[in-house]
TrEMBL record:
InterPro entries: Hc1. It comes from the Bacteria. Belongs to the histone H1/H5 family. HCT subfamily. It comes from Cyclobacterium qasimii. It holds the Pfam family Hc1. Might have a role analogous to that of eukaryotic histone proteins. One of its GO terms (molecular function) is DNA binding. This is Histone H1.
Length: 57
């Protein structure tokens, strides 16, 4: 569950930047959103590998 909380925290940390980018058209916030989404992708990939390893043992 620790990994799940890690993803939740990451998503929640991006909420303000999503608001700034989509509602206020702040371009710098868009850059932060893109970086956060890349981080989310990387964490997700790590979790997928971890789950696969646990499944195969």
């Amino acid at each position: 569950m620790n990994r799940f909380n890690e993803i939740k925290d990451l998503i929640m940390s991006l909420e303000a930047d999503f608001d700034k980018f989509y509602d206020k058209k702040n371009q710098a916030a868009g850059t932060r959103v893109r970086k956060g989404m890349q981080d989310l992708k990387n964490v997700s990939q790590e979790i997928r590998k971890e789950v696969q390893e646990i499944k195969n043992t």
